[in-house]
Amino acid sequence: MKILEASENCIDAILTLCKNCSEHMIDQGIDQWDEVYPNKAVFLEDIRTKSLFLAGSPNISEHIMGCIVLNEHQDPEYEMVNWQYTSEKIAVIHRLMVDPLYQRQGIAQHLMSYAENVASERKYGAIRLDTFIENEPAIRFYKKRGYEAVGNVFFRKGKFLCFEKRLSS
After folding, report:
1. What integer is the mean pLDDT of 103-121?
2. What region does 122 belong to: left with phi over 0, alpha with psi -120 to 50, or beta?
3. Domains in the chain, please, with CATH?
């Protein structure tokens, strides 16, 4: 499996991945994503800012197994959270997704490890992220990776749990 930075020629495959993941979550009773978010404009901005990374087979542009976004963007709602690490350079993870056909094969672990390593190389002191309060599998996943729940924010779809993890120096 390869992980590399996304390019615009991958946008159709990224949108297919997102649709597959959204439908799978809805089937699981997790109404987190829809046609409003995340959308093509969001992914194109991720590509433009070189913050979207893809996991896949050798011909990754045709079939993407998963993706993750790593940047510094913190939604205004994050200001209400009592973060533990405030004096450091902070990275934020967004839109981690793995195609339902490839879930439970370690792809999310690889993507998270990749993002954490990139963040460490770029001298970030901690990583923040949020996940839908009803997305129990994601909550368990992040806790197992050492992320600590630090508070809640509210977005269009409801309550989201915020996590934070200090990176080793």
Report:
1. 98
2. alpha
3. 2-166 (3.40.630.30)
